[in-house]
Specification:
Length: 131
């Protein structure tokens, strides 16, 4: 019994395996250079020309102006996958990072301020047990 278990374990660990690396991106990338061109007082049309169509539009909650576009949200995600496959033994890792930009508009529809977190490019391949 022990001998057959040892043979099976040796066969499993000496069998050829494979490693897989994968990358997925969701939504369009946000260019830091184009983001730097967004300035206070800029029109909404200029913002969409620079950054593309927003993934989300946040509307005003003011009683007299409920349809005013208060902010545009731009998002991008990068996911990197790592997997190692041996006969019956499989390990995997996934690292997902997001870019998020929120452009706020004043009552005249001009850029008031911009908030941004750009970290999607820090997603990394990793060994399945951590880094």
């Amino acid at each position: 019994m022990k001998f057959s278990l040892i043979i099976a374990a040796l066969a499993a660990f000496s069998a050829p395996g494979c490693a897989v690396l994968g990358r997925a991106q969701k939504d369009h990338r946000i260019s830091p250079e184009r983001l730097a061109e967004v300035k206070k007082g800029m029109a909404k049309e200029d913002v969409t020309r620079l950054l593309g169509a927003p993934q989300e539009i946040i509307f005003s909650n003011k009683e007299h102006d409920p349809l005013r576009e208060h902010a545009y949200v731009f998002q991008h995600a990068t996911t990197k996958y790592t997997a190692i496959f041996f006969l019956f033994l499989n390990f995997g890792n996934q690292d997902e990072k997001h870019d998020r930009v929120v452009v706020f508009f004043d009552d005249l529809g001009r850029v008031d301020h911009v908030g941004a977190t750009l970290v999607a490019n820090t997603a990394a391949y990793g060994f399945p047990f951590g880094r």
